[in-house]
Design goal:
globular, mainly beta, about 40% strand, 14 strands, four-stranded antiparallel beta sheet
Amino acid sequence: MTAVAVVGDNTILPVPGFPRRLPVPLAGISLAAEPLLFAGQTSLILSTTTGIFAWDFAGQPALPGGSSSGRMTAVTGDAVLGASIFDGDMNGIADLLQWERPASGPLGDVLHAYTTRDTGGDSLADEIFTYAAVGRLTTVPVIGDSLIAVGMPAGHALVLNMSGTGLDSSLVNTDPVASAIT
């Protein structure tokens, strides 16, 4: 099964450059429309089982100098959930987070952070850091002012700083709430 990204409907026809056909299935929660600052406008971001694809709303690749297919990242396992967008180093350039479930090897998932630049000339976003989790990740990364948190099984959360250093693997209180005072 492949995916199709369409911007428009039967009343408002697709904009030029769409639909875009993807050669691979989408990953779980996969669609985001975010302002990737390098494009100067909102970009359509799709997370697939093999990486992240992104276009501007004219159907052009969102990554400057990127692949005409819109591919921004490539993973070797399965990218299970959608990308999160943040500005980890506060330089005004959007960064992306996506986690991967390796096809083989250790039982842990891997969190990848990418900048939305290609300085290596390979038509892919440059990787900022990779963090190998001890265990499975279960949620899209949540970005705070200075922390990244990703859900894990049994109420645990993996917590990293913006440079990808693991700070904690915390147990979230899972006791039922009897009452709340507001």
